[in-house]
What does this fold into?
Amino acid sequence: MEVVVQKDYEQVSKAAAQIVADVLNARPNAVLGMATGSTPLGLYQELVRRHNAGELDFSRVTTFNLDEYVGLPVHHPQSYDYFMHENFFKHVNIPAQNINIPSGTTSNYRAFCAWYEKRIGECGGIDLQILGVGSDGHIAFNEPTSSMSSRTRLKTLARQTIDDNARFFEKREDVPIYAITMGVGTILDARRIILLASGKGKAWAVAQTVEGPVTSMVTASALQMHQDAKVIVDHDAAAELKMRDYYEFIYEMKPSAPAV
Ligand code: F6R
It folds into this structure.
C-alpha cells in the first residue's frame, strides 16, 4: 500500500484527480468505481473543471457506484443516485447508459446484486476504484465484521454510520438503516484503488487501515492485500500514522527511484 500525505483537502482532491486523469489518458474507455459522501466532492469538482477546460473526455467511460440507500428513490435528494448526478454526472459527458448505480428500490435485491456483479464483469472489471473511508473504517457500506470476500449485497448500517450520515438528513430517524453495497471482494477485484481521507475524524480509521491488522473489524484494512492501492490523506487524517516519516520519505525519493 502506498501512502501519500498531502497538506490539505484541496491537495488530496487534486492528487486524486491527477490519478483519474492518468487512467483516462491511458485508457479512454476506462471503467471507474465511484464513491459518494463528502470526501470525493473536491475530486469531482476538479474533474469537472478539467473537463470544462477541455482536458478530460468522459465519452467512453463507464462507471459503477459503490452503494445506495435502500428505500430512497433516485430523485430523493439524499439518494446516492441524486448525489452523483448533481455533483458529477450532469457536469461531464458520460453516456447515461454507461452509468451504473445500485438500485435502492428494486423489488428483488438478491437478483439485482447478482446482476450488478455480472454487469461489472461484462464491462471488463473496474480499472480504478475511488474510495472514502468511514470513521469506523468501512469501505463502501462494508461495516465491521463484513466478510473480506463479500460481494454486492444488502447490508445493515452500523449505528456509528447512521450517526455520521445523519448530518445529511433532517432527523437521525430519516437515515435509512439498510444499504445495497459492493462487497469487500468486489472492491478488491479492481485493478487500482485509491482511498481518500481528510480531517481528524478519519485519523483513527486511516491508521487502522494502513498500520493495523487486516481485520473485518476495519474493512478498509483489506486494501493491505491489494497490489495497487494508494491511500491519499491530508495532515489531519494522517495524524495517527506511526510511520508517517517513512511514507513522506518514500514520496520524496520517488522521482529518483529506479524505473520498474
Ligand atoms: C459512500 C461510501 C462510504 C463513504 C464513507 C465516508 O459511497 O461508500 O463508504 O465513503 O462513509 O463518507 P464521507 O466521505 O462522507 O466521510
User: Anything to note?
Assistant: The chain is about 30% helix and 15% strand. The pocket of fructose -6-phosphate is lined by residues 35-39, 66-67, 132-134, 138-140 (CB under 6 Å). The radius of gyration is 17 Å. The chain has a mean pLDDT of 97.
